[in-house]
Amino acid sequence: MSRTRTPVVDGWFTGAGDGFRLLGTRCTACGSVFFPREETHCRNPGCAGGALDEVPLSRRGRVWSFTDSRYRPPSPYVSDPELPWEPYALIAVELEAERIVVLGQAAPGVTVADLAVGMEVEVVPGVLHEDAETAWTTWHWRPTGVRA
Amino acid sequence: MALAADGGAGVTGEVAVLGAGMHPWGKWGRGFVEYGVAAARAALADAGLEWREIGSIVGAATVRGGYPGYVSGATFAKALGWQGARVTSVYAACASGAQAVGTARAQILSGLADVVLVVGADAAPKGFFRPAGGERPDDPDWLRFRVLGATNPTYFGLYARRRIAVHGDSPADFAQVKVKNAAAGALNPNARYRTRVSAEEVAASPVVADPLRLLDICATSDGGAALVLSSMDFARRHGAARPVRIRAVSTVTPRFPNTVLDLPDIATDSWAAVAPPDATFRASIARAAYEEAGIGPEDLSLAEVYDLSTALELQWYEDLGLCGEGEGAKLLREGTTSLGGRIPVNASGGLASFGEAVPAQAIAQVCELTWQLRERAGDRQVAGARVGITANQGLFGHGSSVIAVR
Ligand SMILES: [Zn+2]
What we know:
The complex is a heterodimer of chains A (about 150) and B (about 400).
Chain A: E1 4-7, E2 13-14, E3 21-27, E4 33-34, E5 52-56, E6 60-68, E7 89-95, E8 100-106, E9 120-130, E10 134-143
Parallel strand pairs in A: 1-10, 8-10
Antiparallel strand pairs in A: 2-3, 3-4, 3-5, 6-7, 6-9, 7-8, 9-10
Chain B: E1 15-26, H1 32-47, E2 56-60, H2 67-70, H3 72-80, E3 86-90, H4 96-109, E4 115-122, H5 140-148, H6 152-167, H7 171-185, H8 199-204, E5 207-209, E6 212-213, E7 222-230, H9 232-237, E8 244-250, H10 281-293, E9 302-305, H11 310-319, H12 328-333, H13 350-354, H14 358-373, E10 387-394, E11 398-405
Parallel strand pairs in B: 2-3, 2-4, 9-10
Antiparallel strand pairs in B: 1-7, 1-8, 4-7, 5-6, 8-11, 10-11
The structure holds zinc ion (ZN).
């Protein structure tokens, strides 16, 4: 039986394959970009406030920093306690156009040994975890030039 | 610059620290109220005051312990015995203690109260701190766990890796922070960990969040800390001729755009439309304290900073202006921040030796300044201590810095 694919958070990303993008919002008055998305008020204190339009974020950016999680994170992170813990890397990525640093998990198989500050990475669709009916989808960062 | 002994030099006026008290840090397995009451009684005894003489109590709240934790001011007042004091409870994550001190100071300086008891205590869970339960996608703290599994140590790992890349720090530098703080903590009867630690032991401990190892990261602890604060007039009437004085309390927020990825956020603010402020949030916390106190980093005798990780302590050196950007590890290697150095940092042993008892920790930092400035810090005494600063940053945008003088 195939699982339903459901985003772990609604409205944070869209598309598939090379068309996959994180979704933020941009203030139409001052141009500030927000991720996670602001829906009602621009947070720039010098801005009178404008409409906030949905905007896809740049696909590629550079590693601001990275780390990993060698121990099983607590709930509400979901992992199977029956299985041995498999560490995954976390990457903070600076997007040049938006001037914002966005944290994400690295694509499966990418370890801290594969990463360096300043390295180019791209956003790719990923699966956070699966249960009987649902594949919970998310975004991953992956060094450019690496194909899954 | 010279510090006026009469308390007149500060921008906002000063309050006296009449008493300081702590319940030792540890993993005692009892409730937070017990630790807070023990600390409060110790602070009252140190001040030479009866609980009945206290006009106001301010509790630093804890999210552990349910409702009694949220209304900690009333919880501690009830446990000490209702006596009709003005009561306040404040919560600001790791900065709760500084907000409690700031609230007490505001009451004293405005004339609402002569003498105020400030109390914070916590009973920490085992393992990682985790968010409150339920399905709460509107809470950034819940989201970072749900979506990324990003525990507190992973943020510390990001900052540490960034320092390695940008400033050339090494894991051996980070380990030396632990070695230094463990040596100081071994001299502190209130510390939870009282044994020296070697660089080899740090290097042999398991990696928790690359590049940080278990001994680079502070534990979570039980503990309680309390202060009795008063007006300078009350202190004089009470016979405290030369009390330690609090000259500044900085509880500022960040300024937009905040370009450092802070706990518990998944992203920074964007600086595409507005240029970043000229100081990072952490640096601005200290700057606000210095401005209020009318002093600079060159006036400091000692500093107590929030070493949630070893690498973060080096960051604080730079944010406090003890050295230039990127020079923290050099300052450490030169011994400047060790006991006996020019500006000892975490003479108490720091979080490395205490572990974190969230609402008590910022108060405990002020307890250490108090004992140091009174020259009653025993074997870890900083010789001739005159001016001390505490620094800390609470989740969700809470600055925390206190400057005390004598
Ligand atoms: Zn705007």
